[in-house]
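Tokenised fold entry reproduced for absentees:

. . .
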Amino acid sequence: MPPSRPAQKSLQHRTISSAVAEELRRRIVNGEFGSGFQLRQDALAAEFGVSRIPVREALMQLEAEGLVKIHPHRGAIVSELSTEEIDELFDLRSLLEPRLLEASAPRLTEADYERLNGILQEYSSELRAMHISRWGELNTEFHMVLYQHARQPRSLAVVANLLQESDRHTRLQLSLTQGVERAAAEHAEILELCTQGKIGAACALLRKHIEGAGESLRSYLEKHQTIGAKK
């Protein structure tokens, strides 16, 4: 039985929206569209010769990746991509989070490990489904559950804020640098080391995990912004 006409139209829209998203992503990352630039649906639809529907879908995809922010009255605005901000956020995380894990890991319970394994399973499921908007949320949840028993409320509050601030950077790093599978593998290894009581090794891997994420995103942006500047 041939597919229905609405299904064909839906597939066509997804294909067009993917192409629009790819071109907009290229322009944002290489600096053609700077931070704060307003992406008007009608103008983009006219430029690409498409309807507003695939443009809207493309912008929603870019918002999930952290490249744009959609405001109710202003529309889609290009997010700031600052390597200095990335350095600061990930440097602070690499300093604080291993300390919290070192204090919390010995107190993790069987119920905690069950929850952490559940997060990893859901992460794998969302990875296969390419639900980018969930990657950052699950990453934050995984880290916060690991640190919850540290008994350092001020540091925990700072890290919670840092994770929230770096959420879009995390989604960018995972979606643009093919870092998703590496992140999933490192999360699983950190959890296994904690389970085995190898807390020092788990903290060392956590620091490497955070630093690696920041470095890969910074390198990606620097490379593509340099390419964009030469064009």
Notes: The chain has ten helices and three strands.
